[in-house]
Structure formats: C-alpha cells, structure tokens
Amino acid sequence: MNWQEVLSQFSADISNSTWYEYLAVISGIASVWFSRKENVLVYPVGLINTIIYVYISLRGHLLGEAVVNFYYTVMSVLGWYWWLQKNPLHQQVLHISYSSRKEWSRQLLVFSLFYIAIFFALTYFKNAFFEGVIPWADALASSSAFTAMWLMTRKKIESWYWWILTNITSIPLYFVKHYVLTSVYYVVLLLFAFWGLAEWKKRNRLQQINSGND
Predict the structure, then answer these.
(1) What are phi and psi of 156, to 5 degrees?
(2) pLDDT at 1 over 60
(3) Which residues pair with 86 in a beta bridge?
C-alpha cells in the first residue's frame, strides 16, 4: 500500500466513523490525561472508553482487543478502588514507584504467558470463525496491554513502557481494519504515553525528595 492509497483509505474511513467511536476516543484521551496527572478519574472516565471498545473490537474481528478491553473494564473498577485506599492517617496507600528486579521478571512472565495463550487462541478462531483475525499482532497488542493495565493499577512507572508498546502495535492494527479514527487515537495515546512516563518519573523523584525531608 503506497502513501496515496493510505491517504485514500484514511479519507474514506474517517468519514464513516461512528458517533460512539468518537465518544470512545474522547473519553480514552481524557482518561490517559487523568492517569498522567495521577488523578483517580482515570478509571470512571476510562470505563466509557473500554465498554465501547469491547463492542468495536468484536465488530472488527479483533478478538484479542475485545478481551483486553473487557479486562480493562474489570481492572478499572479494581484500580478505582485501590487508588482510593488510604491508611489510618488518611494518606494514600499507593504511590508511584519503580518495579523491582523480581517484579520485572514477573511482568515478562505475565506478558509471555498472555502472548502465547492469546496467539494460539486467535489462531484457532481465525481458522474456525474469523478469517480477518491477525493473531501475532493482536496477541502482541493484547498481551502488552494486559501487562500495562495491571501495572498501572499498582502505580508502577514501567506501565508506561508497556503502554508505548501497546500503542505502537495498535496503530497499524486498527488502520488495516478500517478503524482509522481509532488508529489516530492510538497515535495520540503514544505521545501521551511518553508524556506520562516523564511525568511519573518526575513525581517519583519529588516523592523521594519529600520523604527524605521528613
């Protein structure tokens, strides 16, 4: 596909974008904005996005992405609860932090297990039901997203690295499925992921300075 064909597809598909895809995109961008600011509104706003994308992903035969967005929905409820937890002094229990070496090993293991399971499941579904499934790409986007969301609920800085991988993979994945607006949305999320990574690193440094002064 040359650039002229890409632009032609973009023009045709953007005009066919539905109102609920626009709503999902807007709520998704707002959710990432709140996550960058470490604001608990990331979760209730994000629920609008994830529920809509379960539907969109099923329509586009992106089964892995549908599962991921269902997982997002469940984890958003849990993350909402965890981020609101306070100790007896009414201070937040969770703080932005780096993963330990053991936690990094666990992340890689979780990612690998999800990738293998989703890849083989999607390969089966491709052969049995949905010819449009792209197993390796959908599994990569899905497994990295599973890992990222789990880490974000625990306020781990490394979640942003996994979001970066998820967004990079999702941009072409949705484009070839003619969800061009969503593809552009993931470009925006990619930029926000780099921004969020820098912001959380900064917040972590400030936490360390403040704790050292206590």
Answers:
(1) -95, 130
(2) no
(3) 92
